[in-house]
Amino acid sequence: MRLPAAVLALLVLTVIPAHGAPRIVGGVVVDDPDEAPWMVALTTSSGRQFCGGALLGSRWVVTAAHCVQGRTPGSITVVGGRLDLLTDGGSTSVAASYRLVDGYSAPSRGKDIAVLTLVEPMPYRSLPVAAPGVHMSGSVGTVYGWGRQAENDTNKSPLLHKAYIPIVPDEQCAATYAQFDARAMFCAGYPDGGIGSCIDDSGGPFVIDGRLAGIVSWGLGCARPNAPGVYTRVTTYLS
C-alpha cells in the first residue's frame, strides 16, 4: 500500500501480548508546544487516552497495530495540539479507517504498526520518517507518551512526557527476548532500568534526530533492569 506523495508508504502491521503495554517511566514533562507538534493521543469517544501516535501528514497517523486492532475506526478519536489532556485545546478527529500489515498477530511477532486515516485533517507539522539506512546502534532516541509513570501505578499524568533512551545492540536484545526479530524491531533501555516506556505509551513515537525511527510496542514490565523496551523498527514498514 502506498500513501499519497506527502505521506509514507505503509507495508505492514500487528496485536499486543499480556506483558506488552508500555508507558513512560523516569521522564520529564514536555512544556514546549513546538517541540512535538506531530504528537497525538488516541482516545475513546468518552475521552479516555489509551495509546499515542504521530502525524505522518494532515490526515494520517502512525501508531501500533495492537492499539487499534479489533476497534471500530469510528470509536477512535485522535487528539492533536494538546500537551495536557485535561484541557480542551488543540484539534480532534475521528478515524475514518486504518490499515494493518498483512499477517500481524501479536507485537512480539513484529509488524506492530498501523496507519489511521482521519475524517478531519490536523493543522500541525508532521513527523518525517528516518531513512532506511539510519545508524541505530549506539544512538539515543526520545520517546513520548501520556502513559503511566511506574509499572504498578493505577494513575497516570494527563501531561505529555518524554524520555531519552539509548538503543541496545540487537545481539543483546536477542539474548533477552527469544522472540526478538531484528528486521521488525529494536530495543532501547538502560542496564539499570528506571527510564523507559510503559502502559498507555504504546503507539507513541521513538524519535532520532527529528525523525520517526520506532513505535512503542512491547516489553517485560516497565523500565526494569536488563529488560529494555521493544520498539517497532519503522523503516522496515514505511518509506
TrEMBL record:
One of its GO terms (molecular function) is peptidase activity. GO terms for biological process: proteolysis. Residues 1-20 form the signal peptide. The keyword Signal applies. SUPFAM superfamilies: Trypsin-like serine proteases (SSF50494). The keyword Hydrolase applies. PROSITE patterns: TRYPSIN_DOM, TRYPSIN_HIS. CDD domains: Tryp_SPc. Keywords: Disulfide bond, Hydrolase, Protease, Signal. It comes from Lentzea kristufekii. This is Serine protease. It comes from the Bacteria. Residues 24-239 form the Peptidase S1 domain. InterPro entries: Peptidase_S1_PA (IPR009003), Peptidase_S1_PA_chymotrypsin (IPR043504), Peptidase_S1A (IPR001314), Trypsin_dom (IPR001254), TRYPSIN_HIS (IPR018114).
